[in-house]
């Protein structure tokens, strides 16, 4: 997909929104990950940011928070034809939730070389264990997503020394 392509421009718009949410999370001491969900008409229906530390909840990942909000907003756990944008490749827990929510498309920023469960470490969407097929677009604003995470972790390491 080329940067001038209308679909790419749409992906950039929503990934920028997710990056802003990730910044809020990072400023609050959370790993900076943000997520947004849009409906088939391109309208924002939910958003989330990492909240594990603030909520003391191991499931409070940005994707889970956004999925819960979207399901509540639509009054259905089936998020058919919706698109999830997230700054970091989802982990196994989030990949499972994405499949169970029946999201149509996942767009993510940067690969997670430690726990990525979409394409990098394991591939849950294409696994025989998955009961749902997911369209995946990776690498949208990859550099900005990577830089945000690297800067946050570098700052955290400096303050711990």
From TrEMBL:
GO terms for molecular function: tRNA-specific adenosine-34 deaminase activity; zinc ion binding. Binds 1 zinc ion per subunit. Its EC number is 3.5.4.33. Keywords: Hydrolase, Metal-binding, tRNA processing, Zinc. The active site is at 63 (proton donor). It catalyses: adenosine(34) in tRNA + H2O + H(+) = inosine(34) in tRNA + NH4(+). This is tRNA-specific adenosine deaminase.
């Amino acid at each position: 997909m080329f940067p001038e392509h209308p679909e790419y421009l749409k992906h950039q718009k929503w990934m920028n929104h997710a990056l802003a949410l990730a910044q809020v999370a990072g400023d609050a001491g959370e790993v900076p990950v943000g997520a947004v969900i849009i409906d088939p008409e391109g309208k924002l229906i939910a958003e989330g940011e990492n909240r594990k530390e603030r909520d003391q909840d191991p499931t409070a990942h940005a994707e889970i928070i956004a999925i819960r909000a979207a399901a509540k907003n639509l009054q259905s756990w089936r998020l058919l034809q919706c698109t999830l944008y997230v700054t970091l490749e989802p982990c196994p827990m989030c990949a499972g939730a994405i499949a169970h929510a029946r999201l149509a498309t996942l767009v993510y920023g940067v690969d997670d070389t430690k726990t990525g469960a979409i394409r990098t470490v394991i591939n849950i969407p294409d696994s025989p264990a998955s009961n749902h097929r997911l369209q995946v677009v990776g690498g949208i604003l990859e550099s900005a997503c990577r830089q945000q995470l690297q800067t946050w972790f570098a700052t955290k390491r400096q303050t711990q020394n």
